[in-house]
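User: Here's a protein and a ligand (flavin-adenine dinucleotide). What would the complex look like?
Assistant: Let me lay out the input and then the predicted complex.
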Amino acid sequence: MLVMHTPPQHHIVILGAGFGGLRTALELEKRRARLKDFHVTLIDKRSEHVYTPLLYEVSTGALHDNQKFCVGELCSGVAVPLEAYPQAMRSKRLTFKRGEVTGIDPKKKEVHLKDGTRISYDDLVVALGSAVSTFGIPGVNEHALFMKCLADAFRVRQRLAEFLGAYVEGKEKRVEIVVGGAGPTGTETAAELGNFFDRLVKNGIIKRKDYEIRLVEAAPDILGIYPEKFRVHARARLETIGVILMTNTKILEVKKKQVVTDKGEINADVMIWSGGIRPLDVVKTFGLALDEKGWIPVEPSVLVKGQKDIWAIGDVAAFLDPKTGKRVPALAQATTKEASVVAENVTRRLERKRPMAFHPPSHWVTAIPLGGAYGLVDFGSWSLRGRLGYFVRKAADFFYFFSILPFGQAFRMWLKGTNVYIKND
Ligand SMILES: Cc1cc2nc3c(=O)[nH]c(=O)nc-3n(C[C@H](O)[C@H](O)[C@H](O)COP(=O)(O)OP(=O)(O)OC[C@H]3O[C@@H](n4cnc5c(N)ncnc54)[C@H](O)[C@@H]3O)c2cc1C
């Protein structure tokens, strides 16, 4: 089936309703007076937009609590339903289409979906994100859990729940958890687990000697991209909540219940891998120019190199900062800024104006929650830590929801999530 929009209506198709795709749709809506007759189709294989910075909360949130929370309640603070989104935003120019993108045809200006649907476009925005990279380490795909999407967070939750159930019944004596990769995601996951088990000890549910959490990193330190002072605070916090740091340690293989490193073997009843990201396989089929790692290189306007009407933003795009020559980091913040640029440039293309260039800031302020009511915020030359850092992070969560939802809905989402997740904090 071919879905077409009749000219002169300008059809903008966005692939992926994550941080980049959703924000692009909203930014286009803001420019409706300038765009005049247009329609936006937002395509995603999932039915919800996920706020990844809070994913770790889903894996442990209220797990120890007697009060049971259903899946819907656990998701309520991280997932925005996409089918109802255009209505929630009162947008008549936005359609959400659920479907898996299997390819594009730049010559015919069509997107192909797995169910056979073909959708024609005038402008195409690729915002499909990234996949987990296992760096070819044997056994990771088979034996490790991940922390990339909502389903991953629930898998971790399930494993923890199984262990706790068996421990309480006396069928399990001890659990050893290994988190592989100490970037922001791995570090905050390890910290969340450290704090969660610490809570269980304080509540008399588990004995301290009956669990071990290790954070394994090949580089000399955790959170390698952050300033030294920031890393010192992060290390101190992890030690306080009982996370064992194993830096300068390369994971060579993951087996069932065991991780083989260059320093020896470690027991791992639960292994969570967060070693990095790689391009999605489907992007290779698009026929676009790719860089040596498989990312899509873009111009300063975020137009895909060599294309006139295909743009790429977010994790999938290799945007090189003109000041440093380095790739802009794969961050939600960078992605949402690129989304504003793409919306502006699609508008300018229709107005026959010159495109604007994306100028990334010299520093990205990042907030990392480290278990319980503790957060670290890196402002570059200075940082905030502890409870203050935690509140800054909570405020950032709210402002994100408010940027994509009407105030009332954003507040309810933030409140519902906080109500469930705060039980561990
Ligand atoms: C656990 C975790 C925590 C993070 N914390 C932070 C943080 O605190 N701060 C920060 O700045 N960044 C954070 N990030 C990084 C941030 O999530 C990414 O940089 C951001 O999501 C990139 O946005 P995107 O739009 O490129 O991709 P995504 O947000 O991943 O969106 C891509 C979308 O494309 C869809 N999709 C993929 N393939 C297909 C297909 N074939 N067909 C249809 N749809 C498809 C996906 O379902 C998804 O909805 C975190 C990431 C993770 C995993």
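Summary: The pocket of flavin-adenine dinucleotide is lined by residues 16-21, 43-46, 52-53, 55, 100-101, 127-129, 147-148, 185, 280, 282, 314-316, 330-333, 335 (CB under 6 Å).
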